[in-house]
Write a structure and sequence with these properties.
Chain lengths: 633, 633, 633
């Protein structure tokens, strides 16, 4: 597999006379890909039906002739202002009942049929015109589904669509009443038209109601995306991608990804550290100009699964951004490090966002590879270094991993609906497990809960899995090593009810969760070996073999053969210890890396990443601050 | 008086075939009472006018034949979905102007006439059918008035009713203008129809306006409840109760209680510690699995007053709940302790919430006495222990108290309307005084501000009493000991204006509050004896005898005979010292208990409660963790 | 110039029989001015068109005959309730889309044409009747523009007016699209009627859009005020003032002030310390009963500029207020100190708010010079002291200052629109610079960004100036000393775009801001000399002389002749050091005052102010706590 670099570009922002020079500089910098078009609807169709594609023809031509391959985006994330005159009710509505107005982007409700039809029309026009264009080598649908909290809409359109969705799913109000347990608090419905969206209720809505709304909302994204893909397929053989974001869990990325050829994501390590990661102040200070050492890797591994092996970074942070609460500049070396880390995790391409910093608009403070005055920004030299290094590097190959971590979007919805403890968050739970594995220096695969064959991994981990799908249940025996379920795993049936046997109901494992506790910050439940549970602890009963005890002599972890159940949320140190032992038992060699050091192997090479601001010595290697070192595996 | 136990049960949640076994197990566990029906409207009347009471007949029969006495709840806290089609404007509206939608419970505005009529209709049907049923031994109106912040509604119905209420009260807009001081900021009205609810004003509304809205809102609850009671009385001689909540001050419980036979409340010690009590993190950590040692006792004593001696715990926490930010499990022993503490304070009955944990709905994570799989939850064994202990215990009798604390709902509204210092809260103030008395090991009576005879107490305390009612003023001489008024007492006239002599205007006490200060956290005003005022300090003038000085030589506390006025909010230690001295002066023997130890005597027995997680030795007694010990008084 | 004292009075709040005694006491206390009328519309016009000015005639007569001079306020900050029946859409609308209702004050949208017409009508009636009244010696328009966040309204009236304003400014949608960069995210408009107010957008609105809305909103205030002034001028020769507030930056006070004769402001030192100043808890505790030592001085100097030399304190805090989160009482001496500080900064008059504490209404807990029972409040004696001291004091004269600080309202809007770092605030930045200069014991002038002659200052400072106006650019050579621009200065063009050369684009200074960083609390960027930047740091390039280095050897401050650019936000200590050095270089003698000590000279006298709670010795002077000492300059 070839590794390549690219950049996001907005020809419509610049005078046409500048395009050739820009294109030439891109190519000279070692870039292969250029993504364009995804916000250009007002220039492609300045008035309803008044199309102007000529400029795009010319832009693609200029870029293509410079040797660049174009990723063409559908412009549906930014409908022009005239769209509102045609569809005044197309706006999403927030949970407080307020329409989310025009004036930025993503101002549409996924459930609005009229807007969907407009999207299909513009996509068809673009696909027809460029589907066979030799320079258009890939497509992107829309942009960053879910960004700015745009999945959950409480609009009239959403309400009507939700009712339809429920009618399809349940066929009768009585079936729905039974599934949701609506006898509770007299919440029974006699018709689907009585069912409202679960916002602004007096106290919390029925979790079953909320969960179905979350499923519905995810399905709407899948359908919206599929409508575009279906059209593109008719006109092009180029691969189709979407650019996901970091820690967006409001829709099922696997389901969207199933309709696409490539998963890609937009990686902003420094912004994400600041605005979407639980961490101590000390940790955030240590990695202020580097971003978290595991957050990007997690998403690389996640989107490799979503893309069924094919994945890109569609937008890579190249310098300070504009949108985080604070926006420091990356340490010198980090742009190179981030890029190589993506490649080490199997990325086919890394594109930087964006070519030249725009002097206007909402992102005028977002760095590009060029400054607004067209001078090189500091990131550009690092990009050019990577381009040179790529030329010498061995071809990438699929990297083996001994360990797999199940990541499930429905579980995120479930525990968001019913956290039971205010700080119980599914992503946070999985990320803690992932970080512990990374600290051991392991290659990790993230896998879907619908995986039907576990034979390639020695250790499969599934903390917090809302329900155990039949497929995965059937696949459990295929794992030659151990499968470890964690707290809350299979504690609910799909209708959100507690299973008659209380869960986790794992095959051959005689263990029930008799009772659970959520614990506030500062409280912990001690284990017999000196470790502790935080956030969450369960009282287990049953005859399964106890492999870990709590200080109160209850079981903390039990097993039956290679099947484990861990009944609590271990502190980071405790988790490291537990997972290290499990690895050792499976013959998986582990390390104990310093907090800033991470590694990955692709079988041919081993990559070392020093995310720290200080140099490190490790296994005879010298790693300067913010550096990557590649050695034979 | 007999003490008895019971449980809350939802036959409509379970197959009818399971009822007999459930009933038998309840009886076998030593339970006497079973509360049912209060959320069952959608099963009693699945469609408008389509009644189905047969299942309830059978449920009452099954329970009754098992020897249980039924408390039958009116189902008006959960109107069915069809009610909204009949009365689309029945929903309450929040302070931001948003209707509070169907999908949970308490989705009604107390001022909606149409919904009130529906409630009267269903209550009449229930009363007619079950009023003379031999198994129905008590009734409950609605459920937890005020829970989920449902007293203050800003709906059209509320606005119309408020205007009527004002017209009745003031008779003319000019009278209202004068009473409210509407000449201030040109707020004068020329008609009652011009008066809006006091939400969403540019800056704060006139406190007199807000205070009347608070009075009106309380009156609406009283009227709503009375409408049900009036109907029940026509059909039944069984006592009628309502189940109040913890720290709900939005309506006058004394006024609601005056129409009822029994006051009851829903006691969730661990949840309340977490979500409705000001305390340090250390205190909350110390009592994480026990709840606050004084919070339940305060409400026991309060609702004993509201019930004019007759009171129950209608819902007792039996294990972890679902609704607090964090939900740990009670220490072993706490369910027994809580139950006995209620009895020690005079409860006639304690009912647990609920029999079996429901596997569905909003409260699926709320423990019951049984788990969802019908196995006993840990609380059940403690309940059975209490049942056995009750059999051996002497009959309860009314317990004497030397000290009374006045608790007044109007004062809560007043200082909520005008805190003057951001952390001035009337409940908090009274609770601090109550806790100091509890730490002294005293029996305490909480009394209404309308008490007309103080002769039974040696010490009567009234901190923060908004206005001094004429009745209480007339009763002051009846107290043989001391009456102590605290900060802000009688500092306003009923129309919220400052009295011409500035207050407290106490008979025979020459003292005026010349000026007040509110103090931020971390600031304190030192007293001459080493103590300090926090939150609030007043500058007193007048010729009354000074009994406590501030460091600046101003009076901190003054007296005239047995009448005292304390011009500040003492720190906890200072308050303990002041009240200890006052007790000593009145010949009231006090203790200085450790923070986890509490006691109460009913004249015949002395009960000791160790709320701590460690054992205690005290007065020759050994108290294990989370334990109750009963000794002869 | 004569210095005088006065008070705010509400004759409509008190029985007419009390007026003569009140007036006599005012005069006897040494007061000269009495402000009345500004909230009395409901008494002047109880019903539409039904006028009653007789009581006001009599009040003015009583006050005037007592020897007092009247400041008459137009009553437009409190339209009566009937106004809403005439103009139901006159209310402002908040950013969440909710009308801000009647029931307090300032319940109007500045853009409502109908309400503006009503204001012009009532002002004309007042002006006609009292314009030549010999007792009416000054006028005040409205009251505290901007208080309670009332400048930005999202009403229909505001939307319509904004569209007109934009049409005037840009003439064509295309011009607007180009200026705003609306090609970004397809935000282009084809007509002004498509443009909405920039609230409730999905994510942030275009900063250019927001900035124009901020300019528009400020212009609406200027126009509203001018409409009143134009009418007053036709009938009176008395000076016209408005009373501004502390730290209100939502409108351009210079522009409003240009239409007025006198600037005045409402000075509440203790309330402001608590509710609108960034400071450590320790600082707030140190000055709990004194207010911040520099906050009032800043506004004195600011409003001296706004009033072009003529300014008053229209409302001076005389004791505890009601509206801050906590409301402690001033230390004895502070009322005198605050008054003298105003005079030392050039105030012509200081009026206290208010004469007698009102026992009713929203401000019933706001101290006056009299208590509600008409007894003197503690502040009154200090006022009388000042009155006596004034008689002996030399006449005031204009005070020279060596240093000027540019303060620009548009910069406040700009960085509020685009902070880039969550705690970047323009007022905070300027105030930090101001405080450093005060700590040096300097007289400071605050000047408008439109100043056209800098020759009177040796040092002119302009941190954070959004754009450099042509006038100021042209005036730079007029400064004989140094002009220092600070972080973000001239970093934008007026249309909010980044300048092609990146800024600061200062004449003769070869320096560009290559990149900026915002830093979270706790992070700092070290300088070579041991100092540090906090909040904000810039990477400078160019050939300008480097006068200060960062630890990473980049330039921190550069110069060309007397023109400096400082590329970061220094910590307080670093800023003191930098500005001290700059003063020294310009031959300006500085001190290093303790945190509680401040001083100002008016050329004839030097005033020393000890804001601390402890006595101070300084330069041979003994300064008791909370004291002012005047010595010959
Ligand atoms: Zn992006
Ligand atoms: Zn309850
Ligand atoms: Zn004011």
């Amino acid at each position: 597999m070839t590794r390549s670099l690219g950049v996001c570009y907005y020809p419509e922002h610049w005078p046409e006379t500048q395009w050739p020079e820009d294109a030439a500089r891109m190519a000279a910098s070692g870039l292969t890909w250029v993504r364009i078009g995804e916000f250009a609807w007002s220039r492609l169709e300045p008035a309803p039906g008044k199309l102007d594609f000529d400029w795009l023809d010319r832009a693609i031509d200029v870029l293509g002739r410079a040797g660049l391959k174009v990723v063409l985006g559908t412009p549906t994330a930014t409908p022009p202002r005239w769209m509102l005159d045609r569809h005044p009710d197309m706006l999403a509505v927030d949970a407080a009942g307020r329409p989310r107005k025009f004036g930025s982007r993503r101002h549409y409700c996924f459930s609005h049929r009229g807007y969907l039809a407009e999207c299909k029309r513009i996509v068809a026009l673009l696909a027809e015109r460029y589907g066979a264009n030799p320079h258009v080598a890939a497509w992107q649908t829309d942009n960053e589904y879910g960004c700015h909290d745009t999945i959950l809409s409480y609009s009239d359109a959403a309400r009507a669509a939700f009712r339809d969705w429920l009618a399809q799913r349940y066929q009768s109000p009585d079936a729905l009443n039974r599934a949701w347990g609506n006898v509770f608090w007299s919440m029974e419905y006699s018709g689907f038209d009585q069912i409202d969206l679960p916002n602004l209720t007096v106290t919390e809505a029925n979790p079953a109601h909320v969960m179905d709304f979350r499923r519905f909302a995810s399905d709407q994204v899948v359908a919206f995306n599929r409508a575009q893909v279906d059209i593109l397929r008719r006109y092009t053989r180029a691969p189709v991608a979407h650019n996901y974001m970091g820690r967006i869990t409001e829709f099922d990325h696997y389901a969207v990804g199933a309709d696409l050829d490539i998963a890609s994501w937009d990686s902003y390590p420094i912004g994400f550290l600041s605005d979407r990661l639980e961490a101590t102040d000390a940790h955030k200070a240590d990695f202020l100009r580097q971003g978290d050492p595991d957050f990007q890797a997690f998403h690389h591994d996640l989107y490799r699964a979503v893309g069924r092996g094919r994945w890109w970074v569609m937008e890579q942070q190249p310098g300070p951004v504009n949108w985080a609460p604070y926006n420091p500049a990356p340490l010198p070396g980090m742009v190179r490090l981030w890029t190589w880390e993506a490649f080490a995790h199997g990325a086919e391409a890394v594109l930087y966002f964006r070519w030249r910093q725009a002097p206007f608009g909402q992102e005028q403070m977002h760095a590009g590879l060029l400054r607004p005055d067209s001078e090189p920004a500091p990131g550009l030299a690092e990009v050019e270094t990577v381009a040179r290094e790529l030329a010498d590097a061995p071809m990438a190959q699929a990297a083996p991993a001994d360990v797999a971590l199940v990541f499930d979007y429905a579980s995120a919805w479930a525990w968001d609906t019913q956290p039971q403890g205010a700080d119980f968050d599914y992503f946070r739970l999985c990320f803690a497990w992932y970080r512990a594995l990374r600290r051991m220096g392991l290659n990790i695969d993230i896998i879907s809960p619908d995986t039907d064959d576990l034979s390639q991994w020695k250790l499969v981990l599934a903390p917090g899995l809302f329900t155990l799908p039949d497929t995965l249940r059937a696949a459990l025996p295929s794992c030659s090593g151990a499968v470890v379920f964690g707290p809350r795993a299979n504690s609910r049936r799909p209708d959100f009810s507690i299973p008659p046997d209380l869960g986790p109901s794992l095959p051959g494992l005689d263990a029930r969760v008799a009772r659970v506790e959520s614990l506030p910050p500062g409280s912990a439940l001690p284990l017999a070996n000196g470790g502790q549970f935080v956030h969450w602890a369960e009282e287990l009963e049953g005859k399964a073999v106890v492999v870990l005890l709590r200080e109160d002599n209850r079981a903390a972890m039990v097993r039956a053969g290679g099947l484990y159940y861990l009944g609590g949320w271990p502190s980071d140190a405790t988790l490291f210890s537990i997972l290290s032992d499990l690895c050792a038992a499976q013959g998986i060699a582990t390390r104990d890396l310093p907090s800033a050091l991470r590694t990955r192997s692709d079988g041919k090479s081993r990559f070392w990443f020093n995310h720290g601001a200080s140099a490190l010595e490790w296994e005879g290697l010298h790693l300067p601050p913010a550096s990557m070192l590649r050695v034979p595996a």
